[in-house]
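User: Okay, second chain of the day. Same drill as before: sequence in, structure tokens out.
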Amino acid sequence: MFPIVSLLLLGLFYSACKKSATTTDTPVVVPAAPGEYIGSVTVYSKSDTILDYFLKKNYSKITGTLALYTADDIDFNKYLINLRSVTGSVRLYKIRNTNLSFLSKVTKITGDLQISACPDLTSLSGLTMLDTLSTNMVIENNPKIQNLKGIGLIKTVTNLTITNNAALQSLSGLDSLSSVTNSISIEANPALISLNGLSNLATVTLNVVLANNAIQTNLNGLNRLKSIDGTLSLAGLPLLSDLTALGALNDTITSVTISGCDNLTNLDGLNSLPRIKKDLRLVNCAKIINLQGLTKVDTIGGTVEFSKLAAFTSFTGATVLKGIKKDLRITECNALASLAGLSKLDSIHGDFIIDDNASMVNLKGADVLKTVRGKVQVLNNENLISLDGLESLKTIGGDIDIYYNPKLTSYCALKPTVFNAIFYNGFNSYNPTWTQIKAGSCSK
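Assistant: Same drill. Structure tokens below.
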């Protein structure tokens, strides 16, 4: 009986696995729609035959990439004038056109629009019908482009990258853009004065990076921007004088990094910002004098760094700042005499570092600071006399390092009740041991 059952099961298995006589391995090919070219159209020189074929068939749609990588003198209007959509990217590199009129009927690009190193292009004129760009817009290394007029219907892009366009003066033409679902990067445009043209931009999901635009004086154009979910990075903007155009920002930001902005005096414009989720870094900004503008930020979730701020005299403006979740680093702020302005700061969850501040004489101002969970380092402050201001500091989780403060004579404010690490001290005017400090021999 058992062999018969086995044979029956084997027969059923064979029948189930056996291919039908009508089964074929040939893949199903979806035929092109009328006017549709399936595949990429790539041109490297005028000898390429693809454009003649495209013209002969009178195609109006490309399902693939349109890539024009040539400096040859080609009349693209002749070949592409009927093109209406590209289901893929459009990449233009070194073409000799002064405008983009050969794309004047295109309404939709489902990939990137990349325009690079086009030596005679002065604007984006010709893209006025384009209302859908599904991913990135990249405008880079175009020496004559002065503005972005001609591309006024796009409302959303993934990334907006505008870099190294020597004659670009404004972003006019992007007036319909309301959201960027990833990041903005506008860098190394030496003639760019402002961001006018982004007047309807309301949200950026990740980062806003503005860097090395030598004559940019303000952030006008970002006046309706309400949220940046990533980092605001401003670097190498020597004439930037204020952040007031950011007054509509009213949502939590991840990080703020400002460096090489030598004409900026404070942070006015960030007044409605409720919280910084990660880092705040101000570095090498010659005229910043205080933190006016951070009036609502009560918590900073990462590291706070103030470095090489030659005119920085106080933390005025940080009136509600209570907690820093990682380090507080204050280095080479040579006009800073104390910690005045940190009157609400009660906890630092990382290291507390005071290093190489030539005018600092004491640490007054952080009078309610109770907890530092990392190290306390006081180093290389040539005029520091005392640690006054740290009287409320009761918990220190890491080591205490106090070195190379040639005028430091008083440690009496340093009296934590919870400290189980190591006290390092040397090359100061007075160098007591931790035992001496606890016994009351804390000054000379």
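The chain has four helices and 32 strands.

User: Thanks, on to the next one.
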